[in-house]
Amino acid sequence: MVRDPEPSVTFGEELRRRRMAAGLSLTDLARRTNFSKGHLSKVESGAKHASSDLARLCDQALQAEGALSRRVIAAAAKSLPDTAEPSEVWTMQLDPGGGTTFSAFDRRTAMTSVGVGMMSWVLPERSKSHGSVETVLPAFRSWLDDFRRLGQCVDPSMIIQMSVVATNTLRALISDSPGSPERSAALRLASRFAEYTGWMAQEKGDDDASAWWTNRAVEMAASGGDKDLAAYALLRRADLTLYRDDWVATLSLAQDAQARSGLARVRAHAAQREAQAHALAGDERASRRCLDRSATLMAQSVTEDVDGPVLGSTTMTDPVAFATGWCLFDLGHPRDAAEILSAELTRLPASAMRTRARYGARLALAHAQAGDIDQACAVADPVVSDMRLLDSATVRYDLRHLSRILRRWRSQPAVRELMPSLARALQVVRH
């Protein structure tokens, strides 16, 4: 069990104590971490704050088993914001330039204020005996597959617009058929659109919207008889906290998701999040146990119904291998991480641009942390180029870390060439 760091001793004091106990000078530690002696001295004295990258490297150099990383993470951890209450009426406005404004209102507010002065279209009455819902469901299922493919290569905002419309259209189609089998099937399908909207919102960097849409997906799935999506909602929240370096919240959410879900594949992905949380905390043995459990569950999941939540990318050949590479980096083994991630990336199709960018950024970061700067820049270059189309907040998370490392090597030609385009990729695109 990983213990929380004691708050009474500063990071710098603990770093100095462990360095001296290991018999290392500042020069020795600087050589092992690729940070300058002067920077380390300022961190130990409290004149500079330690980054998560420095903490991980010091953990590895001093065999601290994550104790230093936990101090940095605990200081920076933030709680996930509450989400909005469910609403009855959804509205979306699209401007000519492609911008989108989405709003959700309770029905009374929408009728008394929002609807004033707005043009409105009303769906015609339908005969309940026509079976129109059952007729259109195959087309919507095909759309969902198309949206998932499009989501690999276009800005999330575009997918969000289409997915919101599809979700709302399904809600409208089933509004007059309570209790019918077609209604349950349509609700479950609408929940998949809403869940994918939540994933795209996360990619866009809007955590509040991601949580809101995921909660709406859970409500619709439950109404349609699917209780497993509630467990997956915890997994989505674990994703959000993971990208805030909050290993405590990620660990709790991942374990809760595994306890609640009856689907092996949901538990498999939750075990991966648990492994990543343990890796952030520096607990290598616990992380590896979770990865082994995930591999076992993945093997069991092949017999399950494929009509379920969108668990990340469907293009990954071996999600456990990707998670292993991810964890090895956080555990302070960047060369081992780079070896695994590089092998897995070669197996991804060229069309899986978002997935390739996500794990390519982590591979570049691993190379940079290992001191292989030219290789890091070579791997990062196509990722940075693709960011103009993808605008991914999760990719940007690793690119920010990469930028901080590369600034220490700014005199190298490869770094000087990459930095201008990397800086542009780190700018958040607003729509």
TrEMBL record:
Top-level taxon of the source organism: Bacteria
Domain (HTH cro/C1-type) ranges: 15-68
GO MF terms, alphabetically ordered: DNA binding
Gene3D superfamilies tied to this protein: lambda repressor-like DNA-binding domains
InterPro entries: Cro/C1-type_HTH, Lambda_DNA-bd_dom_sf
PROSITE patterns associated with the record: HTH_CROC1 (PS50943)
Protein known as: Transcriptional regulator
Organism: Micromonospora acroterricola
Taxonomy of the source species: Bacteria, Bacillati, Actinomycetota, Actinomycetes, Micromonosporales
